[in-house]
Amino acid sequence: MLSIFLNGYAQEKKPNILLIVVDDLNDYTGFLGGHPQVKTPNMDALAKEGTVFTNAHTNTPICAPSRASFLTGIYPHVSHNFWFTDWTINKVLSNSKSIAQFMGDNGYKTYATGKLMHHRVKSEWNEYGIENDFGPYAYDGKKVAKHPNMPAAYTDNKNDGLFMSLAKVPNVKVTDKAPGYKGWYDVKNKKPFKYVNDDDRDLMNDELSAEWAVDKLKGLDKFNNDKPFFMAVGFVRPHTPLVAPQKYFDMYPLETLKVPVIKKNDNKDTYYRTTFKWAMPWTQHYQELEASYKNIDDGLKTYVQAYLACVSFTDDQIGKVLKTLKESRFDKNTVVILVSDHGYNMGEKDFLYKNNLWEESTRIPMIIKDPSIKGSKGQRIKHPVSLIDLYPTIADFANIKASNTKNELGKTLSGFSLKPFLENPKNPQWKGPDVALTAVRGLLKSDETKKQSYSVRSEKYRYILYVNGKEELYDHTKDAYEWINLANNKKYRQIKADLKNQLQEILTKQ
């Protein structure tokens, strides 16, 4: 009887925390309305049960540095980790505790599955389930090959150059250089990926992760444990390759699919491409798509269909995990957080990728549900926040006051807890800034703070300062699509100066 009481007491004192991380998801969700036809019933249901941060942003809009930042709680300009270098050899990050180690050191059992860090350290978790896998891919018998149904002009990169239904089984012809292969291939496990139809096939990586999380939650539900749990579930879709079962493609018929709202020549008053002295491959995807179809709208429809299919596919996996949680004894004592690592441009400004400082790539879905906070259900917060606030928010929910540093070489958390917004959205005791900061690699061979490009997003404006000194300014009260660069407009001189000062103030805080 005493053990049951102690178990219940521990669970009441410390909430469980479930973190769901989606990859490359922009505002194409029902609750954000980024695409009028998207179907995301499970994420939408969570949004109704929790608090939605409608002005949430990534701190660096590309996977590896974004995850290294928010899962350690340290800004890229503080750690000088702006790119794909292994975060475990970064002087600052390696001497600071990741969220997994931090929670484990402070009384939580920690579990993870799927795509979280690019460079995983399994030992930081009590259990790590399914490792990330981007596939399946077409295969020529020796290596990953370009899918034969892909347009000739589009990149043959195995990740970025594939948007296709699983039902389009690749048939790679035999050549004098390769033996050819008919079917999909699981590169990670070095075996064919079975696909007969949607009901007779191998499970994809996200399905395996959802299955693992469901089993883990059910197991924990049956087992009396005096420790709360922190579980992180990472889903790789809608990251490229945009491959999903056919039923998800059927949800978005090409004949009726709507393409994004795009202004012709919208990139003429922008400076992103002028910051590079070489042709970065990701800057050319839109042009490759344009060259692949007689009408660019046809190309965009095909691409958007695959993206939306992957979004709905991932939404189903999220639904499996949330349903299991709801049916467990943990439902009333588990904080659920759902975020994406960054957004994605779908042709706006002639750009089809991420890693830029515009709204489509910096803005992310962010939902926080805490069943214990009355009145937080269905709230929508428009104050700018960012992923850097995730770590301190989790620590706050768990009521952990301990340091996140391992030693004097580590850095304290860069962000601020978002919990005050849930408790009092009209007058939150928010200690953070009035802008959300995003960084993009400026000079590829430099990790210096001053040699990167930056953006700050306030409630009404976006200001961009590129490494070469060029500027962009957008007024979101009049220009939600960021079509008109006002950086040289005299009427906005003071607004631009204020935003630039706020940007510099954040950068100087190390």
Count of helices? 13
Count up the domains.
1
| The CATH fourth-level homologous superfamily | Alkaline Phosphatase, subunit A
Unreliably modeled segments: 1-11
Shape: globular
CATH class bucket: Alpha Beta
Rg over CA atoms: 23 Å
Mean pLDDT: 93
Taking strands numbered 1, 2, ... along the chain, how are they ordered across the largest sheet? 5-4-14-1-16-17-2-18
| Major β-sheet annotation | 8 strands, mixed
**What name is given to the CATH topology?**
Alkaline Phosphatase, subunit A
Question: What is the percent of helical residues?
Answer: 25-40%
Total strands: the figure is 23
Structural class category: alpha/beta
Q: How far apart lie the N and C ends?
A: 51 Å
Into which percentage range does the β-strand content fall?
15-25%
Summary keywords:
single chain, 510 residues, alpha/beta, Alkaline Phosphatase, subunit A, eight-stranded mixed β-sheet, four-stranded antiparallel β-sheet, 13 helices, 23 strands, disordered N terminus
